[in-house]
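Inputs:
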Amino acid sequence: MSSDIILKVEDVGKQYRLGLVGTGTLSHDVNRWWSKLRGKEDPYLKVGEANDRAGKGNSPYVWALQDISFNVKRGEVLGIIGKNGAGKSTLLKILSRVTSPTLGQIKTKGRIASLLEVGTGFHPEMTGRENIYLNGAILGMTKAEINGKIDEIIDFSGCLRYVDTPVKRYSSGMKVRLAFAVAAHLEPDILIVDEVLAVGDAEFQKKAIGKMQDISNSDGRTVLFVSHNMTAVKNLCQRGVLLENGRITLEDDITNVIDKYLSIDGSTALKEVFTDETRRIGSHKLMKAIEIVTADRDVYTNEDLLFKLTFDHTDTQELTLGYVIKDDKGTSVHAANMQQYNLKYRLDKGHTIDVLLKRIPLAPGKYTISLYLGNGSYDVDIIEDAIFFQVFWSKELKAVPPQKKWGSTFINTEWNYRNEEA
Amino acid sequence: MKTAEDNWLYVITSKKKLIDFNFSEIWRYRDLLILFVKRDIITLYKQTVLGPLWYLIQPLFTSLIFTLIFNNLADIPVTDGVPNFLFNLAGITSWNYFKECLIGTSDTFKKNENIFGKVYFPRVIMPMSVVVSNLLKFGIQILVLIAFYIYYVWFATPSFDIIPQINLALFPFLVIMMALLGLGFGMIISSITTKYRDLFFLIQFGVQLLMYGSAVMYPMSYFKKKLPDYYWLIEYNPIAVIIESFRTMVFGIGDLEFNKLIYTAFFSIIIFLIGLVVFNKTEKNFIDTI
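Outputs:
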């Protein structure tokens, strides 16, 4: 049984010191060194708190990861999900040996390589071809290995015409293509992919996802995939690990893990309590929280979307509410306000407004809702990007989902064919 | 059961061994070393008009200025029969190699933070590539030195009666020692500066000061004659020993002090080993502190 486990993570923990490096750090270092000299344990390992970004801590030491243990089998595609600051990147950094864990150990039977972010290690003055060699070597390939694959790599990147041009003349999309092409032809036993698929155009994303599936299916290679793009995670992974505040809270079938992730309070989905002052503009702080209420916790194309808005402080005047839905590029795709419907309410603590959007024509993807509260002549409370939500493709639509480059909307279309001659 | 446990390719742990070197891994990444060297060479003088000529301009002009200031203005006498300019050029050429190695490796972690933070390869490849690519630069500068040497011996009037010694065969050892010293000190400095940047400011003028203490523009014998009380300051400076030995070999002036050379060799190896250990210890966690 244990023979097909390729990666074994055992009780891994990682501690960080917050704040600035200054004279305080030197005294801690001396302390640490002194206790090590006397053969004692590092005094700072005992302190340290769970990594909750929003809360205020008492100790400058935090545990970015704690008690992380999981196994990965050969040929498996494991999704690692969690909200920002849950410890995903730290875990990947430890796995790819960029930094070492504070506690615990990781055993592996294969070479691990991680997919570089956009063109890291690319030298702008060197040509595409030279960069393929350099990048490949950085990722652990030998020159002979690259020689054998160079044509395939160039072909996959789709940059044949530019391959002898310095990379500084490339568009950012071409750089990503080239970087991905090199990494995809790498033959590590375990490949780590971190959120790269967010870039590049739809055609290339499709190609990239296909390549990743090939890698795991036919080549039997193991992939660890980290992304906020739940559609991609759902498509690629069989099993998932959910990280919350540096701990694994669920290790299960990927659909269960995604469900749990989307239900985490205050995550990218479903409920947002407004504490973050930076996104708030306006003189009054009236809105308290927004919550998306749906039957099975997911938002689907061409189905209803209900969001609930709660209020905190009292305002004597009657107010109107407006909202704007923006796609992941920040482009407004739809807006509406109560003035259009000739509505006005006096809002007080404990009041709520339920906003029901019928049969939303939004294509699958990431969207945000921005909220505007005004008195008819000016806005008194504005929250930009108050909540993020993900629209999934509804199975009831009996159609293939539209590609991303087609636009952010989907209109359910009937195609009525008639043969007039008959 | 036991056999399955032993099959692990490698283990990532927090435990730090003092000397934890995986030479086979470094060997596996040898192509990367070559590619880094190639990158350094082809990209250094991109978009400059004079290109690699800059390799020559710097030592030539420095020698010229040194000759004007130290020999003509300050009247430092160079050992009999050696042209002032050639004496300075020989000193500067060898000093430059050490200096470039030191400066080039002393900010390894800071300069490569971006790439080190994303992907793993044996970090020591990076400073090693600096030392190797500087070797090429050094080679070009040596050619210039040879050109001027030939000029002074055959074409200058009156011609100079200088001849390289048989012990010039030891020249490669001098180069290796300079490389080890530059690399060793560079790795130590780059490791410490990941957390405490103070040393970075020190290195800026420290190198400048070190040059004056390294017998670059004066013979050690002259220093001994003029400032005997301070001679100990430079007598055991390994760089001064290397530069003085180099000139002895090239011009045939004075005697080669073998015991000092042996001392320097040991010193270089020890500094290099300390550098490796410190560097190796730092590379594991530097990304958290930089």
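Remarks. The two ends of chain B are 42 Å apart (CA to CA). Strands of chain B lie at 10-13.
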